[in-house]
Amino acid sequence: MESPAAARLVPDDFPTGVALLNNPFLNKDTAFSEHERDALGLRGLLPPRVNTMEEQVARVLENLRGKASDLERYIYMIALQDRNRALFYRAVLDNLRELLPIIYTPTVGLACQQYAHIFRRPRGLFVSARDRGRIARVFRNWPFDDVRIIIVTDGERILGLGDLGANGMGIPVGKLALYTACAGIHPEQSLPVTIDAGTDNAGLLHDPLYMGLPQRRLRGEAYDALIEEFIAAAGERYPHVMIQFEDFANANAFRLLAKYRDRACAFNDDIQGTAAAVLAGMYAAMRATGGTFAGQKLLFLGAGEAGIGIADLIVSALVGAGLSEEDARQRCWFVDSKGLVVRRRTDLKEHKLPYAHDHVFLPDFPAAVEALKPTAIIGAAGKPGTFTKEVLEAMARLNARPIVFALSNPTSNAECTAAEAYTWTKGAAVFASGSPFPPYPFQGRMFVPSQGNNAYIFPGVGLGVTMSGARHVTDAMFSAAAETLAAAVTADEIARGCVYPDITRIREISLAIAVSVAEVARAAGLATRPLPEDLPAHIRAAMYEPLYRDYA
Fold it and tell me: Is 435 part of a structural domain of the chain?
């Protein structure tokens, strides 16, 4: 029986009973204490035994590992996130290596493809073309008033899977989970948004269970007006928010970044976050190859937002190392779907022109490898198997330690596997990939391939931006993040073939990146919040820790 003394401990506006169990931000499930069960009207609504959080995590893992597929594991984890946020993040944080591939790449790609068919309950905010003229009102429906980070997609280029329309909501939901797990952003301070401007995916348009607008995509002025209203409404509702553009198609990604990066606190993760992750991997690779960063020649497969973004940041870093901009650009070459990007071509889009060099046209990637003799090849085209045996054997012939970054996601789109990279270069490759590959034994040595995961970069950048109140997100912040990440790779990790640090250290790495980003904001006069002398301690104290608190 609930005692009067216990009842008096409960604030008048605090949810009780079933309402408390249905609140994912407050729910503790079977971890509610005996006293809390009396004070909060939970007696009889839960099994009688009180569990610790550690016992609950063990139950989560047992259930998760019993699922038949990664998609089922994803559904299970999302259901847990909907029910008990603290337990979800505790399980993820304590088991990062096992669970990050489940809640994000590569499983999230399949989850987005199946989104309408595995739908359980709505997540985030859907802003559709039908909301024109009332998007500010839509924002007012979101229940939290202190949102610091918005991730927004229009679903047109989800990973390497193409136009998934409103099904793309899995991407901002997943990436914001990484913000919390990897950098301690409080889950109430993040908002996933999908802008439903329609879809040109015929399969979705004919799918009776598809949940987005069953219409072709808006283009031109109508699309731009929708995005403009979204940006204005987001800024009105949350004046200090950082907006992260995610998985927009090339045609929109570059121009939206150019349009809004100086008007709002905004960046594009596919362009800038990917670039910083790859730049960090290149810095670390120099410790494995013994080469100099300024002495590299990079050949990219794919000239979209990821590839061009990587090259732009690498050029900036090379200029910082003493090269002229012209010389730095000459270190970066591109092969797109038509062949080598050269100046004489008349079919090049604007974002490719800075990398169109004077050279005879070459029709394909293998020919470009033989002619240009790159020290590094970087795959960002979503074309599986394109780093062929011929290509990798050529790279090993041309370089004592060839750098091979097969970055396309999900795993099914990887340019080559880790096993192929090590086997076809006879163990010489310095390898990284966009999706995880297991360790690979070869010639008596165990190679540990690295995943060039943007999760190493964007959570720390976002933490630094929000803690400093930076008015804008700059390329200098991403350069600082790349340097900080590369410095975190240990000598032992380099010896095992890694160019990125162990993911289990991600929180400390995100903290270090946040400090470096906040320092850049302060030095550039962009910080709007006071930054104390002991900046690491200040930021660490603000990071969300997934623990239960006592309610009564």
Answer: yes
